Amino acid sequence: TGTPSPRAVLVLAVVLVGLWAPRAEFGQPNFILILADDVGWGDLGANWAETKETPRLDELAAEGMRFVDFHSAASTCSPSRASLLTGRLGARNGVTHNFAVTSVGGLPLNETTLAEVLREAGYSTGAIGKWHLGHHGHHHPSFRGFDYYLGIPYSHDMGCTDTPGYNLPPCPPCPRHGTAARVARKDCYTEVALPLFENLTIIQQPVNLSSLAARYAEEAARFIQQASHSGRPFFLYLALAHMHVPLGVPPSPPASGRSIYGASLAEMDALVGRIKQVADSHGKGNTLLWFTGDNGPWAQKCELGGRPGPFVGAWQRQRGGSSAKQTTWEGGHRVPALAYWPGHIPANRTSHALLSTLDIFPTLVALAGAALPPNRRFDGLDVSPVLFGWSDVGHKVLLHPNSGAAGKVGEVEALRLAQYKAFYTTGGAMACDGSIGPAVRHQPPLIFNLDRDIREQEPLDMASREYQAVLPALSRAYTQALQDISTDNVSLADYSKDPAVTPCCDPQHVACRCQAPGAPAAPLPPGMERRAPRLCL
Q1: Reduced to 3 DSSP states, what percent helix, strand and coil does the chain have, rounded to the nearest 5?
Q2: Quick one: signal sequence residues (predicted)?
Q3: How far apart are CA 162 and CA 176, in angstroms?
């Protein structure tokens, strides 16, 4: 190899200046990251014509960029969120399955969150909504880079409420003083009420689910307004309760004939529309809004689960079990995704790049002019060239870990390379009919061509030329990925449990109530604020 010519160096310099020019022009943008829960790819009207309940999200798609080959980093709550906030798969960051109400640990403390990096870069940081990355001690969001937190520390079906909403099976309200002990119902949390935190303090237990969406919207708007007036850039992570069960909608669906799920979807759409409106009113063009989901729909919940669109995992369905949430079938991890940034992201653009929630961390860090944390490897890419419309190239290889459906949790069981997807293990989660697809190891792997078979119905014939041609590249990619993870700085999460760490604002009251049944949220009694952190952390 010789010394590069002066002309080559000049060309490279011009290219680099061209790439960085827009960043100098816009300074440090604000970031709003909205994460929906258990939302299906087909829950977005812009993706799936049959869906009519998302006019504001569809408007967001028309005014920004819609990603049609966008994936969550895992197919269930905690691992997906850990990967989103670290840019690393669970095999690296240690979070391979969900944390419990009694979990002592959480996202390992040696992992650096997106909020920590952005706060160091001068950002105001806020988290509103579901956390599910540990609530005890320093795992709480207030110690993970967020200046402000309002939300529920885990899924909102992990505690009883006085307004239970719609679930399958239906869950009873929290117990009250004087009521007879009830028989515990399978799949229902009945003894401890669902807590709502503001920073380190429980301000309501049980949460009023009926007003939760409005409360989140109000607090998000307040955070945006206050941060905008401060003159500092801001990062808001809004992790919605929608579309996870229980669904909290009016007692009877609207006269329009919408289903319970449809009415809840419309409520989420309105909430996102409100956030966009507030962001636009505080300097349109200064804020990048990114909307996506943590995993696919929860098929076990039948008509209260979302719509996967065409991603039905037909091969698995024929053998029993669901091919959505928890699985490595497309319905488990292909999620809706939109990005909106007037003046920077082209309007009404559809991207077919292979992207992931893993990419959000490195992309926002780069746009903020910050540096990635050292001494670890990242699974995400800086995809700002895709956002700006300069490129439509994403991942060459994308890994899909098991999220509870079959095999060992966190293990890479499927791999995507271009249009090909290889399965080394298959299995279904629990379906609406109660069936669970058995775990099956595949060596050599099943390979699907998603360009021709988006339903994942018919794997390639192993004797075919196409299979034989693509197998070596897939096998190399799989081996290299596992080797890369094994030689990285890998964290281990503490999954131990202790009932003493259960969030409880007043252990003297049945179900840990903070307030009288049916009463509106009220200021906590004197001393409660000091006591809550001790009890809950």
Answers
A1: 30, 15, 50
A2: 1-27
A3: 9
CATH number of 26-171+187-501: 3.40.720.10
Q: CB of 363 within 8 A of CB of 387?
A: yes
Domain locations in the chain as residue ranges = 26-171+187-501
**Best CA proximity match to 430, nearest among 347, 515, 350, 325:** 325
Residues near 297 by beta carbon (within 8 Å), at least 6 away in sequence: 38, 39, 40, 43, 243, 305, 306, 307, 308, 324, 325, 331
Q: Which residues contact 128 (CB under 8 A, 6 or more apart)?
A: 149, 150, 151, 216, 219, 220, 223, 236, 237, 238, 239
Cβ–Cβ contacts within 10 Å for residue 314, how many? Answer: 17
Residue labelled with tokens 């249009």? 419
Angle at 87 between CA 150 and CA 485, to 5 degrees: 135
Annotated catalytic residue, options 132, 135, 136, 139 = 132
Whether 77 is catalytic is yes
What is this structure's pTM? 0.92
- Does 233 sit behind a cis peptide bond, omega within 30 degrees of 0 on the bond before it? no
Using DSSP, state whether 155 is helix, strand or coil. coil
Establish whether 132 is a catalytic residue: yes
Alpha carbons 359 and 335: distance in angstroms, whole number? 14
Specify the amino acid at residue 72.
Answer: S
Of the residues 77, 174, 504, 505, which is catalytic? Answer: 77
